[in-house]
Fold each of these.
Amino acid sequence: MKPFSFSFIHDVWQHHALPYYQQLAEREQRLVAWAALLVPLMVLIFGVMLPLNDARMAKEKSLRTLQQQAQQAEQWTQEILKQGVKKPRGSIMTVVDQQARAQKVRPFITSLRPQLGGDKARLWIQMKQAPYTESVKFYQALASQGIQIVQIKWQKTPILGVVNVQAVVQ
Protein backbone atom coordinates (compact mmCIF):
# COMPACT_ATOMS: atom_id res chain seq x y z
CA MET A 1 0.00 0.00 0.00
CA LYS A 2 1.39 3.38 -0.97
CA PRO A 3 1.73 6.06 1.68
CA PHE A 4 -0.61 9.04 1.38
CA SER A 5 0.79 11.80 -0.74
CA PHE A 6 -0.30 15.36 -1.19
CA SER A 7 0.29 15.04 -4.92
CA PHE A 8 -3.16 13.47 -5.15
CA ILE A 9 -4.71 16.63 -3.67
CA HIS A 10 -2.60 18.75 -6.01
CA ASP A 11 -3.76 16.71 -9.03
CA VAL A 12 -7.42 17.01 -8.04
CA TRP A 13 -6.99 20.76 -7.60
CA GLN A 14 -5.15 21.27 -10.90
CA HIS A 15 -7.32 19.03 -13.08
CA HIS A 16 -10.79 19.33 -11.56
CA ALA A 17 -11.33 22.12 -9.05
CA LEU A 18 -9.25 24.94 -10.58
CA PRO A 19 -10.76 24.69 -14.08
CA TYR A 20 -14.24 24.65 -12.56
CA TYR A 21 -13.36 27.61 -10.31
CA GLN A 22 -11.99 29.60 -13.26
CA GLN A 23 -15.22 29.06 -15.21
CA LEU A 24 -17.21 30.78 -12.46
CA ALA A 25 -18.13 34.44 -12.75
CA GLU A 26 -16.01 36.86 -10.71
CA ARG A 27 -18.84 37.35 -8.21
CA GLU A 28 -19.17 33.57 -7.72
CA GLN A 29 -15.40 33.23 -7.32
CA ARG A 30 -15.50 35.78 -4.48
CA LEU A 31 -18.38 33.88 -2.89
CA VAL A 32 -16.41 30.61 -3.07
CA ALA A 33 -13.32 32.33 -1.62
CA TRP A 34 -15.34 33.70 1.30
CA ALA A 35 -16.91 30.29 1.86
CA ALA A 36 -13.43 28.72 1.88
CA LEU A 37 -12.52 31.11 4.70
CA LEU A 38 -15.76 30.96 6.68
CA VAL A 39 -16.50 27.22 6.63
CA PRO A 40 -13.31 26.18 8.52
CA LEU A 41 -13.85 29.08 10.92
CA MET A 42 -17.42 27.96 11.58
CA VAL A 43 -16.30 24.37 12.06
CA LEU A 44 -13.74 25.58 14.60
CA ILE A 45 -16.28 27.70 16.46
CA PHE A 46 -19.30 25.38 16.39
CA GLY A 47 -17.42 22.07 16.39
CA VAL A 48 -14.70 22.82 18.93
CA MET A 49 -15.01 26.08 20.84
CA LEU A 50 -18.71 26.00 21.76
CA PRO A 51 -18.70 22.34 22.91
CA LEU A 52 -15.61 23.05 25.03
CA ASN A 53 -17.29 26.11 26.53
CA ASP A 54 -20.46 24.13 27.25
CA ALA A 55 -18.43 21.40 28.96
CA ARG A 56 -16.58 24.00 31.05
CA MET A 57 -19.86 25.60 32.13
CA ALA A 58 -21.30 22.20 33.08
CA LYS A 59 -18.20 21.42 35.17
CA GLU A 60 -18.46 24.81 36.91
CA LYS A 61 -22.14 24.17 37.70
CA SER A 62 -21.25 20.73 39.05
CA LEU A 63 -18.49 22.26 41.18
CA ARG A 64 -20.89 24.88 42.61
CA THR A 65 -23.40 22.14 43.45
CA LEU A 66 -20.75 20.05 45.21
CA GLN A 67 -19.49 23.10 47.12
CA GLN A 68 -23.04 23.85 48.29
CA GLN A 69 -23.47 20.24 49.40
CA ALA A 70 -20.16 20.34 51.29
CA GLN A 71 -21.17 23.61 52.96
CA GLN A 72 -24.55 22.12 53.95
CA ALA A 73 -22.85 19.00 55.33
CA GLU A 74 -20.48 21.19 57.38
CA GLN A 75 -23.43 23.18 58.72
CA TRP A 76 -25.25 19.99 59.70
CA THR A 77 -22.09 18.68 61.35
CA GLN A 78 -21.86 21.81 63.48
CA GLU A 79 -25.55 21.51 64.44
CA ILE A 80 -25.06 17.89 65.47
CA LEU A 81 -22.00 18.76 67.54
CA LYS A 82 -23.93 21.54 69.33
CA GLN A 83 -26.81 19.20 70.19
CA GLY A 84 -24.61 16.74 72.01
CA VAL A 85 -25.19 13.01 72.41
CA LYS A 86 -28.59 11.64 73.41
CA LYS A 87 -29.57 8.15 74.41
CA PRO A 88 -31.53 6.39 71.66
CA ARG A 89 -35.18 5.56 72.43
CA GLY A 90 -35.96 1.97 71.51
CA SER A 91 -33.83 -0.55 69.66
CA ILE A 92 -31.29 0.70 67.16
CA MET A 93 -33.03 -1.21 64.34
CA THR A 94 -36.37 0.47 65.15
CA VAL A 95 -34.89 3.97 65.32
CA VAL A 96 -32.99 3.50 62.04
CA ASP A 97 -36.08 2.17 60.26
CA GLN A 98 -38.31 4.99 61.59
CA GLN A 99 -35.83 7.67 60.56
CA ALA A 100 -35.27 6.07 57.14
CA ARG A 101 -39.01 6.22 56.51
CA ALA A 102 -39.30 9.77 57.87
CA GLN A 103 -36.40 11.00 55.71
CA LYS A 104 -37.72 9.06 52.67
CA VAL A 105 -34.53 7.04 52.15
CA ARG A 106 -35.98 3.63 53.08
CA PRO A 107 -36.33 2.57 49.39
CA PHE A 108 -32.59 3.12 48.93
CA ILE A 109 -31.52 0.96 51.90
CA THR A 110 -30.51 -2.39 50.48
CA SER A 111 -29.20 -3.95 53.68
CA LEU A 112 -29.65 -3.55 57.45
CA ARG A 113 -27.57 -6.09 59.35
CA PRO A 114 -26.70 -6.29 63.03
CA GLN A 115 -22.95 -6.38 63.71
CA LEU A 116 -21.65 -8.91 66.20
CA GLY A 117 -19.12 -8.17 68.89
CA GLY A 118 -18.45 -5.14 71.03
CA ASP A 119 -20.32 -3.98 74.10
CA LYS A 120 -22.95 -1.95 72.20
CA ALA A 121 -25.45 -3.02 69.56
CA ARG A 122 -24.20 -2.07 66.12
CA LEU A 123 -25.99 -1.98 62.80
CA TRP A 124 -24.53 -2.04 59.29
CA ILE A 125 -26.52 0.08 56.81
CA GLN A 126 -26.03 -0.07 53.06
CA MET A 127 -27.70 2.42 50.71
CA LYS A 128 -27.51 2.27 46.91
CA GLN A 129 -28.31 5.06 44.44
CA ALA A 130 -29.51 7.35 47.24
CA PRO A 131 -29.93 11.12 46.88
CA TYR A 132 -27.00 12.80 48.62
CA THR A 133 -28.99 15.49 50.44
CA GLU A 134 -31.58 13.06 51.81
CA SER A 135 -28.82 10.67 52.89
CA VAL A 136 -27.08 13.40 54.87
CA LYS A 137 -30.40 14.41 56.46
CA PHE A 138 -31.00 10.77 57.38
CA TYR A 139 -27.67 10.44 59.18
CA GLN A 140 -28.24 13.81 60.84
CA ALA A 141 -31.62 12.58 62.08
CA LEU A 142 -29.98 9.41 63.43
CA ALA A 143 -27.43 11.50 65.30
CA SER A 144 -30.19 13.68 66.76
CA GLN A 145 -31.84 10.47 68.05
CA GLY A 146 -28.66 9.46 69.86
CA ILE A 147 -27.41 7.00 67.24
CA GLN A 148 -23.66 7.33 66.82
CA ILE A 149 -22.04 6.89 63.41
CA VAL A 150 -19.01 4.67 63.97
CA GLN A 151 -17.90 4.39 60.36
CA ILE A 152 -19.24 5.74 57.08
CA LYS A 153 -18.12 5.38 53.48
CA TRP A 154 -19.56 7.57 50.71
CA GLN A 155 -19.13 6.47 47.10
CA LYS A 156 -19.96 8.68 44.17
CA THR A 157 -22.02 7.35 41.30
CA PRO A 158 -22.13 8.43 37.66
CA ILE A 159 -25.30 10.41 38.46
CA LEU A 160 -24.74 13.86 39.96
CA GLY A 161 -26.20 14.15 43.48
CA VAL A 162 -26.61 10.39 43.91
CA VAL A 163 -24.35 8.30 46.17
CA ASN A 164 -23.83 4.83 47.58
CA VAL A 165 -23.34 4.77 51.35
CA GLN A 166 -22.12 2.12 53.76
CA ALA A 167 -22.25 2.92 57.46
CA VAL A 168 -21.89 1.27 60.83
CA VAL A 169 -23.93 2.89 63.60
CA GLN A 170 -24.40 2.19 67.31
Amino acid sequence: MEAARTLLANHLPSEVVQHLELHTLAPVDTSFIDQSLRRRFADRLFSVEVSREIVQSLGMKTNDVYVFVLIDHKSTDDPHTLIQMLGYIVRIWERALNNSMPLVPILPWVIYNGISPWRASKSLSELIPVPESWKRYVPALELPILDISRVYVMSVSPIVGEQEMNELVSEFWPVQPEPGSIADQLIKKGEARGEARGIAIGEARGEARGEAREKANTIRTLQAIQGLPQSSADHLAEKSLKELQATIESLQQQIAGRIR
Protein backbone atom coordinates (compact mmCIF):
# COMPACT_ATOMS: atom_id res chain seq x y z
CA MET A 1 0.00 0.00 0.00
CA GLU A 2 2.98 2.32 0.43
CA ALA A 3 3.32 2.85 -3.32
CA ALA A 4 -0.40 3.67 -3.58
CA ARG A 5 -0.06 6.19 -0.76
CA THR A 6 2.93 7.78 -2.48
CA LEU A 7 1.09 8.07 -5.79
CA LEU A 8 -1.96 9.64 -4.18
CA ALA A 9 0.10 12.00 -2.05
CA ASN A 10 2.22 13.19 -4.96
CA HIS A 11 -0.28 13.31 -7.80
CA LEU A 12 -3.82 13.91 -6.49
CA PRO A 13 -4.79 17.60 -6.33
CA SER A 14 -3.36 19.22 -3.21
CA GLU A 15 -6.78 20.49 -2.11
CA VAL A 16 -7.84 16.84 -1.88
CA VAL A 17 -4.71 15.40 -0.29
CA GLN A 18 -4.60 17.94 2.53
CA HIS A 19 -7.82 16.52 4.01
CA LEU A 20 -6.95 12.81 3.69
CA GLU A 21 -5.39 10.65 6.40
CA LEU A 22 -3.39 8.58 3.92
CA HIS A 23 -2.01 6.24 6.59
CA THR A 24 -5.57 4.81 6.78
CA LEU A 25 -5.69 3.93 3.06
CA ALA A 26 -7.12 0.45 2.47
CA PRO A 27 -8.32 -1.48 -0.62
CA VAL A 28 -12.03 -2.16 -1.19
CA ASP A 29 -13.48 -4.99 -3.29
CA THR A 30 -14.75 -3.96 -6.75
CA SER A 31 -15.93 -7.34 -8.03
CA PHE A 32 -19.48 -5.97 -8.26
CA ILE A 33 -18.52 -3.58 -11.08
CA ASP A 34 -19.39 -4.55 -14.67
CA GLN A 35 -16.83 -6.93 -16.12
CA SER A 36 -17.48 -5.51 -19.60
CA LEU A 37 -15.88 -2.22 -18.61
CA ARG A 38 -12.67 -3.98 -17.66
CA ARG A 39 -11.76 -4.60 -21.29
CA ARG A 40 -10.44 -1.06 -21.25
CA PHE A 41 -9.83 -0.26 -17.60
CA ALA A 42 -8.29 -1.76 -14.53
CA ASP A 43 -9.96 -0.32 -11.45
CA ARG A 44 -8.97 0.08 -7.84
CA LEU A 45 -11.17 1.37 -5.03
CA PHE A 46 -9.65 2.60 -1.79
CA SER A 47 -11.22 3.76 1.44
CA VAL A 48 -9.45 6.48 3.38
CA GLU A 49 -10.37 8.56 6.39
CA VAL A 50 -10.74 12.32 6.14
CA SER A 51 -9.65 14.81 8.75
CA ARG A 52 -11.77 15.25 11.87
CA GLU A 53 -12.27 18.88 10.90
CA ILE A 54 -14.02 17.87 7.66
CA VAL A 55 -16.20 15.29 9.42
CA GLN A 56 -17.36 17.82 12.00
CA SER A 57 -17.85 20.74 9.60
CA LEU A 58 -19.96 18.66 7.19
CA GLY A 59 -21.74 16.54 9.80
CA MET A 60 -20.67 13.36 8.02
CA LYS A 61 -22.05 10.05 9.32
CA THR A 62 -18.70 8.34 8.74
CA ASN A 63 -15.16 9.59 8.45
CA ASP A 64 -14.45 7.40 5.42
CA VAL A 65 -14.43 8.47 1.79
CA TYR A 66 -13.53 6.49 -1.31
CA VAL A 67 -10.82 7.15 -3.88
CA PHE A 68 -11.75 5.40 -7.12
CA VAL A 69 -8.85 4.88 -9.53
CA LEU A 70 -9.37 3.97 -13.18
CA ILE A 71 -6.20 2.73 -14.86
CA ASP A 72 -6.66 3.20 -18.59
CA HIS A 73 -4.45 0.80 -20.49
CA LYS A 74 -5.45 1.58 -24.07
CA SER A 75 -3.11 3.45 -26.42
CA THR A 76 -5.39 6.49 -26.90
CA ASP A 77 -7.71 8.39 -24.61
CA ASP A 78 -11.46 7.71 -24.67
CA PRO A 79 -13.81 10.72 -24.98
CA HIS A 80 -16.41 8.79 -22.97
CA THR A 81 -14.23 8.12 -19.92
CA LEU A 82 -16.12 10.78 -17.97
CA ILE A 83 -19.44 9.02 -18.55
CA GLN A 84 -17.93 5.66 -17.65
CA MET A 85 -16.49 7.10 -14.45
CA LEU A 86 -19.86 8.56 -13.52
CA GLY A 87 -21.39 5.12 -14.07
CA TYR A 88 -18.81 3.52 -11.79
CA ILE A 89 -19.52 6.06 -9.06
CA VAL A 90 -23.29 5.50 -9.26
CA ARG A 91 -22.78 1.72 -9.02
CA ILE A 92 -20.72 2.16 -5.85
CA TRP A 93 -23.45 4.32 -4.31
CA GLU A 94 -26.15 1.84 -5.36
CA ARG A 95 -24.22 -0.94 -3.67
CA ALA A 96 -24.00 1.15 -0.50
CA LEU A 97 -27.76 1.73 -0.51
CA ASN A 98 -28.48 -1.96 -1.12
CA ASN A 99 -26.33 -2.83 1.89
CA SER A 100 -27.77 -0.11 4.17
CA MET A 101 -24.45 1.70 4.17
CA PRO A 102 -24.08 5.50 4.28
CA LEU A 103 -23.38 7.37 1.06
CA VAL A 104 -19.89 8.86 1.11
CA PRO A 105 -17.94 11.11 -1.25
CA ILE A 106 -16.12 9.28 -4.04
CA LEU A 107 -13.01 10.98 -5.40
CA PRO A 108 -12.31 9.94 -9.01
CA TRP A 109 -8.83 9.63 -10.48
CA VAL A 110 -7.61 8.39 -13.86
CA ILE A 111 -4.14 7.02 -14.53
CA TYR A 112 -3.55 7.13 -18.28
CA ASN A 113 -0.68 5.47 -20.11
CA GLY A 114 -1.55 5.90 -23.78
CA ILE A 115 1.09 6.66 -26.38
CA SER A 116 -0.34 10.12 -27.14
CA PRO A 117 -1.12 12.73 -24.46
CA TRP A 118 -4.60 12.88 -22.93
CA ARG A 119 -6.81 15.25 -24.94
CA ALA A 120 -10.34 14.15 -24.03
CA SER A 121 -12.63 16.25 -21.85
CA LYS A 122 -11.78 16.24 -18.16
CA SER A 123 -15.08 17.66 -16.94
CA LEU A 124 -18.74 17.11 -17.76
CA SER A 125 -19.13 20.83 -18.39
CA GLU A 126 -16.66 20.50 -21.27
CA LEU A 127 -18.34 17.37 -22.60
CA ILE A 128 -21.93 18.61 -22.20
CA PRO A 129 -21.99 22.43 -22.35
CA VAL A 130 -25.08 24.07 -20.86
CA PRO A 131 -26.13 27.67 -20.18
CA GLU A 132 -24.80 29.10 -16.94
CA SER A 133 -28.33 29.27 -15.50
CA TRP A 134 -28.75 25.50 -16.00
CA LYS A 135 -25.58 24.33 -14.29
CA ARG A 136 -27.20 23.85 -10.89
CA TYR A 137 -29.52 21.25 -12.43
CA VAL A 138 -26.88 19.22 -14.28
CA PRO A 139 -24.44 16.71 -12.72
CA ALA A 140 -20.91 18.02 -12.39
CA LEU A 141 -17.80 15.88 -12.45
CA GLU A 142 -14.15 16.69 -13.07
CA LEU A 143 -11.44 14.06 -13.50
CA PRO A 144 -7.92 14.52 -12.19
CA ILE A 145 -5.68 12.82 -14.79
CA LEU A 146 -2.21 11.40 -14.19
CA ASP A 147 -0.91 11.21 -17.76
CA ILE A 148 2.11 8.93 -17.83
CA SER A 149 2.02 8.40 -21.58
CA ARG A 150 5.79 8.76 -21.91
CA VAL A 151 6.79 7.08 -18.69
CA TYR A 152 7.05 3.40 -17.87
CA VAL A 153 6.11 4.10 -14.25
CA MET A 154 2.90 2.06 -14.16
CA SER A 155 4.61 -1.09 -15.48
CA VAL A 156 5.82 -1.99 -12.00
CA SER A 157 3.17 -0.29 -9.90
CA PRO A 158 2.03 -2.51 -7.02
CA ILE A 159 -1.46 -1.03 -7.42
CA VAL A 160 -1.99 -3.58 -10.20
CA GLY A 161 -0.91 -7.19 -9.82
CA GLU A 162 2.42 -7.99 -11.46
CA GLN A 163 1.02 -10.65 -13.79
CA GLU A 164 -1.84 -8.39 -14.89
CA MET A 165 0.54 -5.49 -15.41
CA ASN A 166 2.97 -7.56 -17.48
CA GLU A 167 0.09 -8.61 -19.74
CA LEU A 168 -1.07 -5.02 -20.14
CA VAL A 169 2.43 -3.79 -20.86
CA SER A 170 3.13 -6.46 -23.47
CA GLU A 171 -0.16 -5.71 -25.24
CA PHE A 172 -0.38 -1.94 -25.10
CA TRP A 173 3.03 -0.48 -24.33
CA PRO A 174 5.48 0.63 -27.05
CA VAL A 175 8.51 -1.62 -27.46
CA GLN A 176 10.89 1.25 -26.79
CA PRO A 177 9.17 3.69 -24.41
CA GLU A 178 10.41 7.24 -24.46
CA PRO A 179 12.25 8.44 -21.33
CA GLY A 180 9.85 9.24 -18.51
CA SER A 181 7.84 12.38 -18.79
CA ILE A 182 7.50 12.77 -15.03
CA ALA A 183 11.26 12.66 -14.64
CA ASP A 184 11.92 14.67 -17.77
CA GLN A 185 9.37 17.35 -16.94
CA LEU A 186 10.77 17.87 -13.47
CA ILE A 187 14.33 18.04 -14.75
CA LYS A 188 13.53 20.24 -17.75
CA LYS A 189 11.65 22.74 -15.59
CA GLY A 190 14.84 23.32 -13.66
CA GLU A 191 16.97 23.40 -16.81
CA ALA A 192 14.66 25.86 -18.56
CA ARG A 193 14.56 28.19 -15.59
CA GLY A 194 18.31 27.87 -15.24
CA GLU A 195 18.84 28.88 -18.88
CA ALA A 196 16.53 31.87 -18.49
CA ARG A 197 18.12 33.12 -15.28
CA GLY A 198 21.59 31.66 -15.46
CA ILE A 199 23.48 34.92 -15.99
CA ALA A 200 23.71 35.79 -12.31
CA ILE A 201 25.79 33.45 -10.15
CA GLY A 202 23.38 33.62 -7.25
CA GLU A 203 20.44 32.72 -9.48
CA ALA A 204 22.40 29.87 -11.01
CA ARG A 205 23.17 28.45 -7.60
CA GLY A 206 19.57 28.75 -6.54
CA GLU A 207 18.49 27.06 -9.75
CA ALA A 208 20.92 24.20 -9.16
CA ARG A 209 19.44 23.64 -5.71
CA GLY A 210 15.94 23.65 -7.19
CA GLU A 211 16.99 21.20 -9.89
CA ALA A 212 18.56 18.96 -7.25
CA ARG A 213 15.31 18.93 -5.26
CA GLU A 214 13.33 18.07 -8.39
CA LYS A 215 15.73 15.25 -9.27
CA ALA A 216 15.48 13.95 -5.69
CA ASN A 217 11.67 13.98 -5.88
CA THR A 218 11.86 12.09 -9.17
CA ILE A 219 14.10 9.45 -7.61
CA ARG A 220 11.77 8.96 -4.64
CA THR A 221 8.72 8.70 -6.91
CA LEU A 222 10.33 6.10 -9.17
CA GLN A 223 11.58 4.14 -6.15
CA ALA A 224 8.15 4.14 -4.51
CA ILE A 225 6.33 3.01 -7.62
CA GLN A 226 8.77 0.12 -8.01
CA GLY A 227 8.17 -0.87 -4.40
CA LEU A 228 11.77 -0.01 -3.45
CA PRO A 229 12.80 1.68 -0.18
CA GLN A 230 12.83 5.44 -0.64
CA SER A 231 16.11 7.29 -0.18
CA SER A 232 16.01 9.86 2.60
CA ALA A 233 16.08 13.55 1.77
CA ASP A 234 19.34 13.94 3.71
CA HIS A 235 20.99 11.13 1.75
CA LEU A 236 19.97 12.60 -1.60
CA ALA A 237 21.00 16.10 -0.54
CA GLU A 238 24.60 14.90 -0.26
CA LYS A 239 24.73 13.85 -3.91
CA SER A 240 25.77 15.98 -6.87
CA LEU A 241 23.46 16.68 -9.80
CA LYS A 242 25.47 14.20 -11.87
CA GLU A 243 25.02 11.49 -9.24
CA LEU A 244 21.29 12.21 -8.96
CA GLN A 245 20.90 11.99 -12.73
CA ALA A 246 22.80 8.69 -12.77
CA THR A 247 20.41 7.32 -10.14
CA ILE A 248 17.39 8.39 -12.22
CA GLU A 249 18.82 6.69 -15.31
CA SER A 250 19.51 3.52 -13.32
CA LEU A 251 15.91 3.42 -12.07
CA GLN A 252 14.63 3.98 -15.61
CA GLN A 253 16.77 1.09 -16.85
CA GLN A 254 15.35 -1.17 -14.13
CA ILE A 255 11.82 -0.32 -15.25
CA ALA A 256 12.68 -0.74 -18.92
CA GLY A 257 14.03 -4.20 -18.16
CA ARG A 258 10.71 -5.17 -16.59
CA ILE A 259 8.67 -4.31 -19.67
CA ARG A 260 10.79 -5.89 -22.39
Amino acid sequence: MTTDGGGWTTFQRRMNGSVDFYVDWESYKKGFGNLEGEFWLGNDYLHRLTASASMVFRIDVEDYEGDRRFAEYTTFAVADESDDYRVTIDGYRGTAGDALVSLDRPISFSRNAFDILEI
Protein backbone atom coordinates (compact mmCIF):
# COMPACT_ATOMS: atom_id res chain seq x y z
CA MET A 1 0.00 0.00 0.00
CA THR A 2 1.31 3.42 -0.90
CA THR A 3 -1.04 5.42 1.34
CA ASP A 4 0.62 7.96 3.62
CA GLY A 5 4.17 7.05 2.60
CA GLY A 6 3.62 3.32 2.01
CA GLY A 7 4.80 0.29 3.95
CA TRP A 8 1.32 -0.88 4.98
CA THR A 9 0.00 -4.45 5.03
CA THR A 10 -3.65 -4.79 4.03
CA PHE A 11 -5.29 -7.49 6.15
CA GLN A 12 -8.94 -6.84 5.27
CA ARG A 13 -10.65 -5.52 2.18
CA ARG A 14 -14.41 -5.19 1.83
CA MET A 15 -15.90 -3.45 -1.18
CA ASN A 16 -19.00 -4.97 -2.69
CA GLY A 17 -20.19 -7.90 -0.56
CA SER A 18 -18.82 -10.55 -2.92
CA VAL A 19 -17.28 -12.46 0.02
CA ASP A 20 -19.29 -13.64 3.03
CA PHE A 21 -17.62 -12.41 6.23
CA TYR A 22 -20.08 -14.34 8.47
CA VAL A 23 -17.84 -17.41 8.57
CA ASP A 24 -16.57 -19.75 11.27
CA TRP A 25 -13.66 -19.46 13.71
CA GLU A 26 -11.33 -21.58 11.59
CA SER A 27 -11.86 -19.33 8.56
CA TYR A 28 -10.97 -16.21 10.56
CA LYS A 29 -7.99 -18.06 12.01
CA LYS A 30 -6.52 -19.04 8.62
CA GLY A 31 -7.92 -16.29 6.41
CA PHE A 32 -10.38 -16.36 3.52
CA GLY A 33 -11.39 -14.61 0.32
CA ASN A 34 -9.20 -13.50 -2.56
CA LEU A 35 -6.29 -11.06 -2.22
CA GLU A 36 -7.33 -9.44 -5.52
CA GLY A 37 -10.82 -8.71 -4.14
CA GLU A 38 -12.43 -9.01 -0.71
CA PHE A 39 -10.55 -10.94 1.96
CA TRP A 40 -9.49 -11.42 5.58
CA LEU A 41 -5.76 -12.20 5.91
CA GLY A 42 -6.13 -14.42 8.99
CA ASN A 43 -5.88 -14.02 12.75
CA ASP A 44 -2.79 -16.22 13.02
CA TYR A 45 -1.00 -13.96 10.53
CA LEU A 46 -2.12 -10.83 12.37
CA HIS A 47 -0.78 -12.24 15.63
CA ARG A 48 2.57 -13.06 14.04
CA LEU A 49 2.83 -9.63 12.41
CA THR A 50 2.06 -7.73 15.61
CA ALA A 51 3.88 -9.94 18.13
CA SER A 52 7.39 -9.17 16.96
CA ALA A 53 7.30 -5.39 16.48
CA SER A 54 5.34 -2.26 17.30
CA MET A 55 2.64 -1.73 14.68
CA VAL A 56 0.40 1.14 13.62
CA PHE A 57 -3.15 0.23 12.58
CA ARG A 58 -4.82 2.30 9.85
CA ILE A 59 -8.35 2.15 8.50
CA ASP A 60 -9.11 3.90 5.21
CA VAL A 61 -12.74 4.29 4.15
CA GLU A 62 -14.33 5.78 1.06
CA ASP A 63 -18.04 6.45 0.64
CA TYR A 64 -20.09 6.18 -2.55
CA GLU A 65 -19.43 9.86 -3.35
CA GLY A 66 -15.66 9.29 -3.22
CA ASP A 67 -15.14 11.08 0.10
CA ARG A 68 -12.23 9.49 1.97
CA ARG A 69 -11.50 9.36 5.69
CA PHE A 70 -9.00 7.51 7.85
CA ALA A 71 -8.38 6.38 11.41
CA GLU A 72 -4.90 5.53 12.65
CA TYR A 73 -3.91 3.92 15.96
CA THR A 74 -0.32 4.04 17.20
CA THR A 75 -0.74 0.93 19.36
CA PHE A 76 -2.00 -2.26 17.71
CA ALA A 77 -1.41 -5.89 18.71
CA VAL A 78 -3.33 -9.14 18.27
CA ALA A 79 -2.94 -11.90 20.88
CA ASP A 80 -2.72 -15.57 19.93
CA GLU A 81 -5.57 -18.07 19.69
CA SER A 82 -5.28 -19.13 23.34
CA ASP A 83 -6.35 -15.55 24.22
CA ASP A 84 -9.10 -15.47 21.53
CA TYR A 85 -7.01 -13.11 19.37
CA ARG A 86 -7.61 -10.24 21.81
CA VAL A 87 -6.89 -6.88 20.21
CA THR A 88 -4.94 -4.14 21.99
CA ILE A 89 -5.52 -0.78 20.34
CA ASP A 90 -4.90 2.82 21.39
CA GLY A 91 -3.57 6.19 20.26
CA TYR A 92 -6.15 7.43 17.74
CA ARG A 93 -5.64 10.16 15.17
CA GLY A 94 -7.55 10.79 11.96
CA THR A 95 -10.68 12.06 10.25
CA ALA A 96 -12.99 9.03 10.44
CA GLY A 97 -13.81 9.19 14.16
CA ASP A 98 -12.59 7.00 16.99
CA ALA A 99 -14.99 4.06 17.04
CA LEU A 100 -12.53 1.49 18.46
CA VAL A 101 -10.88 3.05 21.52
CA SER A 102 -14.21 4.31 22.81
CA LEU A 103 -15.54 0.76 23.19
CA ASP A 104 -16.24 -0.06 26.83
CA ARG A 105 -15.00 -3.67 26.58
CA PRO A 106 -11.95 -5.47 25.25
CA ILE A 107 -12.11 -6.47 21.60
CA SER A 108 -11.82 -10.23 21.11
CA PHE A 109 -12.97 -12.61 18.44
CA SER A 110 -15.90 -14.73 19.50
CA ARG A 111 -16.11 -18.44 18.77
CA ASN A 112 -19.70 -17.80 17.68
CA ALA A 113 -19.43 -17.13 13.95
CA PHE A 114 -22.18 -14.51 14.07
CA ASP A 115 -20.76 -12.55 17.01
CA ILE A 116 -17.72 -11.07 15.24
CA LEU A 117 -17.26 -7.41 16.11
CA GLU A 118 -18.54 -5.03 13.46
CA ILE A 119 -18.25 -1.26 13.73
